[in-house]
Amino acid sequence: MAQAQGFFHEDEILGKAYDRTLTRRLIGYLKPYRGRTFLSFFLLLLLSASQIAPPIIAKFIVDSAITPAVNGEVTPDVASGRLGALGLLYLAVLFASAGLRYWQSLLATWIGQRAMFDLRGELF
Fold first, then answer.
1. Helices 76-123 and 34-61 sit at what angle, rounded to 10 degrees?
2. Is the alpha carbon torsion for 69, 73, 78, 81 positive or negative?
3. What is the pTM of this model?
4. Helix (H, G, I), strand (E, B), or coil: what is residue 120?
5. What does each of the 124 residues of the chain score in pLDDT, given as a tens digit?
């Protein structure tokens, strides 16, 4: 138990978790990649939207295709058409989400590696 307390005391000794000056200096290494960094953030926003879309599309599938067909409000052909269109939209959003995730991750990794390369070159 004494070791666990020592561990927590070591965390307190290390200092604060966020240092504004250090963060500002490190962000300075992103300046040459400003355009790509903004593109990465934009892709991240699109990725967030694509993560929200599937449950909304599933709601529309239930509300506009399945429930009206079960209640007899629309013919089975109309319900199948709606189900097919919304199902294709659902799959398109899933594939777009996977593509966005790939490109955003690739771009963010590239930016981070280049910024670290610049930092290491300056330190050397």
1. 160
2. negative
3. 0.73
4. helix
5. 555 555 555 555 566 677 888 888 888 899 999 999 999 999 999 999 999 999 999 999 999 999 999 998 999 999 999 999 999 999 999 999 999 999 999 999 999 999 999 999 998 8
